[in-house]
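Reader question, answered in our methods column.
A reader sent in the components of a multi-part assembly and asked whether the whole thing could be modeled at once rather than chain by chain. We filled in our standard form and ran it. Here is what they sent:
COMPLEX SIZE: two components
ENTRIES:
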Amino acid sequence: MSDAVTAVSQRANELDAADPLARYRDRFTLPEDIIYLDGNSLGALPKATPGAMQRVVEREWGEGLIRSWNDEHSGGAGWFDLARDVGAKIAPLIGAAPEEVIACDTVSINLFKFIWAALAHHRANGDANRTVILSEPGNFPTDIYMIEGLEQRGLARRRLAPRDRIAEALDNDVALLMLTHAHYKTGEVFDMAALTKAAHDAGALVLWDLSHSTGALPVDLGGANADFATGCGYKYLCGGPGAPAFAFAARRHHSTLSQPLTGWFGHARPFAFSDDFEPAPGIEQLQCGTSPVLGLTALETGVDLIAEIGVGRLYEKSRALSEFFLECVAAHGLDLDLVSPSDSAMRGSQLSFRSANAYAISQALIARGVIGDFRDPDILRLGFAPAYLRFADMAGAAGHLAQVIESGEWRADGFSKRAAVT
Amino acid sequence: MSDAVTAVSQRANELDAADPLARYRDRFTLPEDIIYLDGNSLGALPKATPGAMQRVVEREWGEGLIRSWNDEHSGGAGWFDLARDVGAKIAPLIGAAPEEVIACDTVSINLFKFIWAALAHHRANGDANRTVILSEPGNFPTDIYMIEGLEQRGLARRRLAPRDRIAEALDNDVALLMLTHAHYKTGEVFDMAALTKAAHDAGALVLWDLSHSTGALPVDLGGANADFATGCGYKYLCGGPGAPAFAFAARRHHSTLSQPLTGWFGHARPFAFSDDFEPAPGIEQLQCGTSPVLGLTALETGVDLIAEIGVGRLYEKSRALSEFFLECVAAHGLDLDLVSPSDSAMRGSQLSFRSANAYAISQALIARGVIGDFRDPDILRLGFAPAYLRFADMAGAAGHLAQVIESGEWRADGFSKRAAVT
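And here is the structure of the entire assembly that came back:
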């Protein structure tokens, strides 16, 4: 072992000993012998979650039955309020007011609601020609795909501009600027306040996808004056596989918002069973079908834990982790092609490296118990969920990476290319 | 106790002793001292579900982490296949082929997809004027509401015709006939084959909402030549509160189907991360966002149990239960205003009664441990989930009902009107 490697290994132990968040690792279940660098795909399991699931399944569903929808019947379960309650808990993590966020549906569905809402907003303001939805090529696919259904019928036009050309693409046709705050592949972060202002100056509304930000980076939707946002419950919020998403609409839009998924849970009085839809006055209007109670319960447990740790401290540790990982890589003498911004202030809680052999390397790492991610066609993506990773994990992962690359271990048959997963 | 009441009480015991499904009650968790007549709102908890939830949460999520999405990584979890696998298990319950059903999103969202798909179908066939969505007034609200978003933009026109006038309302403007097979309030069942044929003869497609049928009544989508269907996972399928819904599209529509919620899980190759949407060729194209794994796992457990019991036997018992309940009511000399069809062959697994005091009566029954449902403005709805109810429950519930009404117990202060729940 070189002196440099010994030094970072020792430094890892010092950093862990001094880490104020170190104790939170024990609040998560993590398998032995695994270094988990994919919390940005699926967050780890909070130890409180199995108990919460048992409560909602056995007590609230099994014993409370239908009564658990109403507080007054269930002694506190209150499933009707769950979507709003979880939303209110997510709100402070993203700089929103509690009444501006609700947990519902998926990111994809929520994007669709807001794209429609932006088009409706401009029509209502006499500007029906604003039908362009502006995003960037290579945005997370579902974000771009959700424009296409409306494009089929001529309701929207898709425009993709590279991130350095977005400002000039904001012309009078743009209804909505729709961007992902931290890029899923590179982790590069947009200047939310500046781009929101640029869009507003051009007469457009703004929709932020916070899937790779929420729970890891500070987000200030209110400070940026953002219009709409949505994000994922199963990444840094540790809500479990396929957790419900959340939706944010700035309060100023509530009274005029129009979205097409007008299901009964978004009705002002769902149990009047009227033939005519009347949207709920507040953020509840963004609900559509019946709330997914089991998924919301797991999400709530994850959100509670992340909120307890605090986004400010998580962000600080996130930057320290990724910076230290790069130190470790350098100590091993690895010369990697970093595609993430080298300044930790400019990226999310991840590092991505370009390599023609990225898939095989990621598979060889998994075989060693280092679970990262591959992103087509050539990206090795390593996520550093700050709530439960140690500095020692950084040193360990860098060591494995060095061995995989230097030994040519990635060339082994079993690591050839096949489909991978977010 | 009158002779008639004694007789039905004794008869209940005989019927339970002879009931081939009696042993399945023990496969569900049911609270002591409760007669649960609301399984048509929220099905009871299968005893297998807590174990399944523990498996998916602690083993698949906690230990398997991101690997559990892929079969080859997880040793069998295979979350990617879950939506299709659960759909394939629901298929035989509704007369569909396994590759025609998928579990995803909510009933409301799936209705929206199919309304759009019907409109697109006619446009593609050069019949763009067919934009009327025909339903009946008083259909379950969300069914009607989901037309309204598209109506805002002139893409669809809503037409509601009373059920005895539907045939004549099927003119050349109708794109889609959208009906609920068993009515949520009255339980009245449509003749699926006849109405599907009438709609097809008039050039329209047909969408069936099976929320109050699936798992309790035989449904033959294939025999009826239906186009689209959706239904609820949390009623007779016992999938838990807010369970994912299912969506059916006849195989003949798969290659031309167009729906606007084009999320990444509906893509032919989600992990190619292409900027352009290309729908999956099969039923997977109806997926949108990431699969709700926790909800799907609970749903799968419920579906497995209902499929094991078998819809044919469930239907037979369902009819026997509701017929016996009416016998018990008659034995008590109660003269109730039945709004459900009196012929059990014409109704779903429920009986609904009209009373100006329906809300207070339902509350007084709940206070006695008989959980039924109130439906605005004046309906007492009693559901007879055949998988776990006994004939003795029928006799017991009728007895409580008689006491509540005859004693005037429902007039007590605590039972005054307030919001109720599906």
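What stands out: The domain at 78-308 of chain A is CATH 3.40.640.10 (Aspartate Aminotransferase; domain 2). The mean pLDDT of chain A is 95.
Send us your own complexes using the same form.
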